Amino acid sequence: MLTDAALTPVQPMRLRVSELEAEAQAAREQLRISREQTQRATATLTELHATLDRWYALIFAPGATLQGVRSAVREDRRRRGEQGEQRRGSGRGRP
User: Fold this and answer.
1) With the C-alpha atoms ordered 22, 24, 25, 27, is the resulting torsion angle positive or negative?
2) What global pTM score does this model have?
3) What is the pLDDT of residues 43-93, one digit of tens each?
4) At what angle do helices 66-90 and 10-59 cross, to 10 degrees?
5) Alpha-carbon gap, residue 66 to 69, rounded angstroms
6) Higher pLDDT residue, 10 or 88?
7) Residue 50: which H helix or E strand, with range?
8) For residue 43, which phi and psi values (nearest 5 degrees)?
9) Cα–Cα distance, 21 to 79 (Å, whole number)
10) How far is it, in rounded angstroms, from Cα 51 to Cα 76?
């Protein structure tokens, strides 16, 4: 059996362990949020890159016209706007 004198240093260590466990949990939550943000940013970047590739191909296509490029860009923007509205409506997009 431990004496009171032996238990005295144990209580501050228990308290510190509890504090460290709480800090570790907070760090894990921050990491989870950061990963989600990184995944969303990566998806957005991929989508924007694909859009730029489409526009580049339209501009440099052999029969490209200004009207055709404008029409395609307008359609891409409209489609992107609809997707953004759907994301915001589902709580997954940026406010």
Assistant:
1) positive
2) 0.62
3) 999 999 999 999 999 999 999 999 999 999 999 889 888 776 766 665 544
4) 160
5) 5
6) 10
7) helix 10-59
8) -65, -40
9) 46
10) 8
